[in-house]
Amino acid sequence: MGEEVPGPERARFLLPRLHLDDLLSELQSRIDSALLTRDRVHSLLDAVVTIGSGLDVEAVLRRLVQASMDLVDARYGALGVIGPDGELTRFLPLGLGEEEIARIDHWPQGQGILGLLIKDPRPLRLRRIEDHPESRGFPEGHPPMRGFLGVPIRVRDSVFGNLYLTEKADGGEFDEDDEAIVIALSTAAGVAIENARLYEETRRRELLLDASDEVTTRLLTGAETGDVLALIARRARRMSGSALAALAIPSPGGEGLVVDTADGEWADRVQGRSVELGDTATGRAYHGGGPVALPGVEEGGCPLPFLADLEAGPVLLAPLGGRVAARGLLVLAREHGDDPYTATTGHLLSAFSGHAAVALELAEARVDAERLSVLEDRDRIAKDLHDVIIQRLFAVAMSLMSTVRRTSDRGHAQRVQRAVDDLDDTIRQIRSTIFALQHAGGEDRRWLRTQILDIANASGESLGFTPGLRLEGPIDSRVPDGVAEHVMAVLQEALSNIARHAGASRADIRVRVTDDLVEVDVSDDGSGIPEDGRRGGLHNLQERARALGGSFEIRPAVGGGTRLLWNAPLGEEG
Predict the structure, then answer these.
(1) Which residue from 275, 281, 276 is spatially nearest to 296, judged by alpha carbons?
(2) Is the dihedral of CA 209, 215, 217, 220 positive or negative?
(3) Cα–Cα distance list, 251 to 256, 257, 258, 260, 276 (Å)
(4) How many CB atoms lie within 10 A of CB 334?
(5) Of 199, 201, 196, which Cα lies nearest the Cα of 62?
(6) How far apart (Å, rounded) are the C-alpha atoms in residues 220 and 234?
(7) Fewer CB within 10 Å, N side or C side of the chain?
(8) How far, in Å, CA of 333 to CA of 341, rounded?
(9) What pLDDT is recorded for position 442?
């Protein structure tokens, strides 16, 4: 057996070995820590690349929350977007299943710990949420959560929102390294969010330019105004990501607005709805010349009349035109729970509606110019007819009259006299045509003389020939609208009777207006009135004359046929 080493000597042998084990253990720990740090840095870089790889704001936000949860092993994560009024306008949660989400009574609204982060946007790390004095508890049905890590997300110089992480997967606490890595990620996320927002704004500006160009082109190439209004509503809805777009125009009385065109969800329900203007959001938007955004369909507890009984969310009201001469109001609404309209969206829609209003003005000016050109052509034609054609016909008629007086042959004289009568009748018809040219197409009101011409021309198909027409006196200026309706009804009934019963080859209409009477004289060369025929239509003519204080008579015409005589005083309808 060897010699045994004394105790003190053995201790001197073991001491260096123990120090070496401690050093090796510490070295291994530091290597593991360095490897973990390296892995987390790589994960952070991967997360930064992932967040910045897209240009859709919604996708960027979701990737940010998911990457943060993965980096710090959090079970739940969420992102709250802060609105202009300092409240959460959007809450995007991850880590919850559909059943868990369904059990939650409502999403957080920016109170308690979340409100503290809004008021004081600095990183906040808690071991237990309920231990903090600002804690307000969770909504009913919300799963329990203990550890908490909140970090603000800054875009340029303003706080865009806050990132919330809870429940570390291993049951531990969030440490300083977790906080540092999430702060670094949120800084990179702010840049990605800003890029995505700039891209979205650029895309919407392109849509605005395309829509403005299409609206202007359609209007200036002769499209109907109603079709263009529908195009404006459709384009505005798509540009703004809205569920509904409606165009409200001034009501006939000018005291309110009525929905003329609508596109999208609920379009059929809002069509034709009206609202009175005043000290309301609608009135402020219409008279103020700028967009008005509302968080919901209610103002002061009362629903907006346009959107009453609709399950809509945020609303945007933009005037169609400037403050002085607004042509209408663009009403946009998103679905309940959608993001509110941003100031950028409001400005874009306001610019688009302004461009559309200018295009409508230009289109109306073009239509007015075309109408003026047509009226000038009609006036020129009327002058030529009056100054040249009628004078020549009148000269020919005078020459023929002198020939009649010199002709001894009675047969020749009668033929010449008939020619003179025909020329006289032609002159009267030309004068009626001149009057119609001067007054048709330039006014909203249809002149009675024009309507009589339309009735006579329309009857040609059923009669088999066009009736002769003679219009005398100030028909349009003297006959009231109420009496004019009876005059047209009498003509239609008389011509209908001729077409159905008379078997005539000729019919003549004469409408004459004196100082106090309008007379309708319709004659034909048909078979006359049968003795056993129905008299329902004639009875109606008699009743019309009696109602107005006039008279009605039907008699045989000279040379065969029937003559209808109807008149009424030129007063208000009796």
Answers:
(1) 281
(2) negative
(3) 6, 5, 6, 10, 9
(4) 21
(5) 196
(6) 19
(7) N
(8) 9
(9) 47
Separation of alpha carbons 472 and 455, rounded Å:
17
- pLDDT on residue 531: 64
Tokens (6 digits) for 361: 């003005």
pLDDT in tens, 429-487: 676 666 666 555 444 456 788 788 888 888 888 888 888 888 888 887 788 888 888 99
Q: What is the pLDDT of residue 242?
A: 87
Confidence at residue 10, expressed as pLDDT on a 0 to 100 scale:
55
Residues lower than pLDDT 70 in the chain? 1-55, 84-85, 105-110, 136, 139, 141, 219-220, 222, 253-254, 279, 298-303, 322-325, 375, 378, 382, 384-388, 390, 428-429, 431-446, 530-537, 571-574
- Domains, the chain, ranges and CATH? 49-199 (3.30.450.40), 202-364 (3.30.450.40), 445-574 (3.30.565.10)
Burial of 316 (0-12, 13-18, 19+ CB in 10 A): buried
Cα distances (Å, whole numbers) of residue 352 to 290, 305, 412, 514 = 12, 24, 77, 56
Q: Are 67 and 53 in contact (CB under 8 A)?
A: no
Contact of 264 with 241, CB cutoff 8 Å: no
DSSP 507-551: EEEEEEE-SSEEEEEEEE-S----TTS--HHHHHHHHHHHHHT-E
Q: Which pTM was predicted?
A: 0.52
Token pair in block for residue 136: 């307000």
Residues 6+ apart with CB under 8 A from 316: 240, 242, 291, 292, 293, 294, 330, 331, 332, 333, 341, 345, 346, 349
Residues 461, 462, 468, CA angle at the centre, nearest 5°? 75
Identity of residue 292: V
Check if the beta carbon of residue 562 is closer than 8 Å to that of residue 523: yes
Residues 403, 420 contacting (CB under 8 angstroms): no
What is the distance between the alpha carbons of residues 445 and 480, in angstroms, rounded to a whole number?
A: 13
Structure tokens at 113: 């710990």
Half-sphere exposure of 179 (CA within 13 A, CB side): 14
Other CB atoms within 10 Å distance of the CB of residue 349: 24
Instruction: Report the sign of the C-alpha dihedral through residues 370, 374, 379, 381, in that order.
Output: positive
Predicted local confidence at residue 519, as pLDDT:
93
What is the Cα–Cα distance from 391 to 377, expressed in whole angstroms? 20
